[in-house]
Amino acid sequence: MKQTNYILEILNSFKNKTHLSFHMPGHKNKGDFRMVFPNCPMDITELSYSDDLNCPTGAIKKAQQDLAEIVGAKRAYISTDGSTSGVMAMLYTMSKFGKKVIVARNSHKSVYNGCRLFNLEPVIVQGEEREGMLLPPNTEEVEKIFANDSTVAGILITSPDYYGNIAPLFNYSLICKRYKKILAVDGAHGAHLAFEDDRAGYAGVYADMWVDGAHKTLPTLTQGALICANTEGLFNYLEEALSIFRTTSPSYPIMASVEYGYKFLAENREAIWTVKFMVEDLKNTLTSLKFCTTKDWTKLVLDCKPLNISPNEIVLELEKRGIFVEMFNDRYILFYLSVKTTKSDFDALKLNLVLAITAKQGVNNFTEKLPFASADRTYSYLYAVNNYNFELVPLRFAEGRMSAENIGISPPCTPVVVAGEIISKQAIALLINAKNTFGVYEGKVKVIKR
């Protein structure tokens, strides 16, 4: 059955009609602006025909109801503020049920920022390391924390992560039900999993609430996201939080694209199998290369260690050939895929990846710096971020000092050093030459005064 894209339908029906705009936005859909941005007629505000995201009664309400049904949620809320607004909303909700929340060591910085805002102490659990990647936290450790600390509201877990590792959500859900705790999932990289057979690995099968970063893996505009919930006792808090964190001037094109992205895949599930086949074909063709094995086909991760070539060198060669990747670190290169990745895209990647590697064979400049390490933690996270007795010191001289702020690399926007941890030589080596960092101010970092 053909899906109706309610928001897009409204935008299309009015984009060619003219009216005098004595309302936002300021471009007024006129003159040079319209010539430069020809789709600006779709960029509207809350009008009598366009509905209101913060109090939906028309097209947006119908869209959200459809999306909830598609992903298997009792409630679904569109966001034009990316997954971060959903993470904030979930943590706000969890703060009503306890003083602490279990988080994985490699959580997105928005998780740590949310804990700071809502005075939630993150109980940081570091999973096992596998070839330079941190795996999701051990379920036995999660259960032990719940058993020994009644002030923990629940767990907020990232699944899948940037490398396609999917957390044991079924096991987490059993533990959370046993201890009456909340299971929240940052599914920023996993919206497409809602369309797998049996929705395998999808957060919505297990979680009390979750966020999908629709724009990451669906045909959706950047910043489009969906926040969902299945536990009635959380609805009011979640809606209250969204009224705080979502913009009051949402982008209608982004909203329309969120609805479109989910409904496109709902009608074209075979597109997933087409891309999966092409992924396997690439791997079977490039048998001399090592790609990481995960259950998430949208993350094609090349291991550069067997090549003895720095990922940076390969990425630069690829960019010379017009191919740009999602991210890379000192060991891996991440090629991010979607149902819109075509056969010609794969053919170009196969050819140019071989050429890029061949151009760098023999340089033997691979040096691995592990992105995470078990760090000494003397004081709590909240102690560190709320301590005004801090100073700025050059990063290169910060070894042995307690960080007063999260410090990391973007992407993947996960802290290399979490506030309250002691800065190690390894962390400095990883950060000092990183291109895009957070928590570093003109070469200096915040540390607690001695």
Which descriptors apply to this entry?
single chain; 450 residues; alpha+beta; seven-stranded mixed beta sheet; four-stranded antiparallel beta sheet; 15 helices
Provide structural commentary:
The protein is of the alpha+beta class. The N and C termini lie far apart (66 Å). The strands form five sheets. A seven-stranded mixed beta sheet has the order 1-9-8-7-6-2-3, sandwiched between helices. Helix 1 crosses helix 10 (252-267), helix 4 (82-94) packs across helix 9 (232-245) and helix 12 crosses helix 13 (343-360). It is 36% helix and 16% strand.
Low-confidence stretches: none
Give me the oligomer status. single chain
The rounded Rg comes to 23 Å
Number of extended strands: 18
Query: How are the strands of the largest sheet arranged?
Result: 1-9-8-7-6-2-3
Helical proportion? 25-40%
Q: Can you give the mean pLDDT?
A: 94
The biggest beta sheet reads: 7 strands, mixed
Strand content: 15-25%
Number of helices: 15
Ends apart, CA distance between termini:
66 Å
Shape: globular
What structural category do the secondary elements indicate?
Answer: alpha+beta
